[in-house]
Amino acid sequence: MLLGLSLVAVSGLILVAADHIDAPATMSGDAGDITDVYAFQGQNTSNLVFAVNTQGLLSPNATGAATFKDNVMVEINIDNNGDNVEDLVIQAIKRDDKMYFFGPVAPGTTGTSSTVKTAAASGSVTISKYGTAALTAEQNGMKFFAGPRDDPFFFDLGRFQAILGGTATGFNNPGTDTFAGTNVMSIVVEVPKSMLGSSSTVGVWAETKKKQ
């Protein structure tokens, strides 16, 4: 995902993938399964918002029992010099009923292994519960949210399969949203652009990593 920091709308946002279940063994409820990653300019145009959604296809009945896991860290990677290597990371880790955030900060190591940047603690928020008002927190110029949300992604899977099978030639308008009525577990961070470096464009991707 590439994002121009000077954009005044999200029309220039390039989304490269959406992943709502990796394989039959990776079903809803797996805290490490990322469905989508979003980055967009905040209502305050001096800020950038990052959202990472996990545990796709949660039914309303399953959402109440869905939780983030203490041994799974969500890491947002930010490349601000165009070399496709993370220059900054934002880390989110659950402890009890709160989500704790670290960064943006230079990573201790790049790639698939990470160390928690405890010296760069930026804030925390109480994790919202399903069916209750969303809880947010604001610290150090940043805003935070963690909890269940309606899945914002739209895709007509049935029509897509029909196109692949040769029984349809294109999508309907409007289509049928396969993800309507399903939920995800979301982590959202709003960050001043000034914390992300001086580049006018950043690359963004996210990972979930389990404690070893």
Mind explaining what this structure looks like?
The chain has 212 residues and is mainly beta. It has one domain (34-153, 180-210). 6% of the residues lie in helices and 40% in strands. It has helices at 60-63, 157-165, and strands at 2-4, 34-41, 47-58, 72-79, 88-95, 98-105, 121-126, 137-139, 142-150, 183-192, 201-210. A six-stranded antiparallel β-sheet has the order 1-11-4-5-6-7, with no helix packed on it. A five-stranded antiparallel β-sheet has the order 2-3-10-9-8. A hairpin with a 5-residue loop joins strand 2 and strand 3 (47-58). The longest helix is centred in the C-terminal third of the chain and has 9 residues, at 157-165. 33% of the residues are buried.
Average the pLDDT over all residues and give the rounded result.
87
β content, as a range? 35-45%
Structural class label: mainly beta
**Within the largest sheet, what's the order of strands?**
1-11-4-5-6-7
- Domain module tally: 1
Shape descriptor reads: globular
Summarize the amount of helix as a percent range. under 10%
Low-confidence region ranges: 4-17, 23-29
Keywords:
single chain; six-stranded antiparallel sheet; 6% helix
Short description:
The chain is mainly beta and 212 residues long. The protein has helices at residues 60-63, 157-165, and strands at residues 2-4, 34-41, 47-58, 72-79, 88-95, 98-105, 121-126, 137-139, 142-150, 183-192, 201-210.
Ordered list of secondary-structure elements with their pairings:
Layout: E1 2-4, E2 34-41, E3 47-58, H1 60-63, E4 72-79, E5 88-95, E6 98-105, E7 121-126, E8 137-139, E9 142-150, H2 157-165, E10 183-192, E11 201-210
Antiparallel strand pairs: 1-11, 2-3, 3-10, 4-5, 4-11, 5-6, 6-7, 8-9, 9-10
InterPro entries: DUF4331 (IPR025566)
Signal peptide: 1-17
Keywords: Signal
